[in-house]
Design brief:
Layout lengths: L13 E8 L5 H7 L1 H7 L5 E9 L4 E8 L2 H17 L6 E6 L2 H6 L8
Antiparallel strand pairs: 1-3, 1-4, 2-3
Protein name: Monooxygenase
Pfam families: ydhR
InterPro entries: Dimeric_a/b-barrel, YdhR
């Protein structure tokens, strides 16, 4: 008698935090300049959402992303880092974080609810 065991892979959403040196444009000009990039990010495997970040005073930009899995976030970080370096960005910092769903929802992150 053969027995098959189905192993369910647990996929956990993760946050990807990215920042890098950036000299502008800022605000509305950045919105216009990055429109095509913003649209393309929506097509990335496992991508759920992004919050775009910019700090004119420290000359940094980046984003906070939600991905469906660690592997999706890692793949995007690798691709995005290479793209930014091809634009002349000397250093791209990226870090992946697990999400504590319960504590996040207690602090109004209801969009994480399943």
């Amino acid at each position: 008698m053969c027995r098959f065991v189905l192993i369910e892979e647990v996929i956990m959403q993760v946050i990807l935090q990215v920042d890098f040196p950036y000299q502008g444009p800022w605000g509305e000009e950045m919105t216009q300049a990055m429109d095509a990039l913003s649209t393309s990010i929506n097509q990335e495997p496992g991508f759920i959402w992004k919050i775009w970040t910019e700090n004119k005073e420290t000359q940094k930009a980046g984003g906070i992303y939600l991905f469906a899995s660690v592997s999706d976030a890692q793949a995007y970080l690798k691709k995005h880092s290479a793209r930014l370096k091809s634009f002349g960005v000397p250093e791209v910092r990226g870090e992946i974080f697990a999400i504590n769903q319960t504590l996040s929802q207690q602090n109004q992150a209801l969009f994480l609810a399943k």
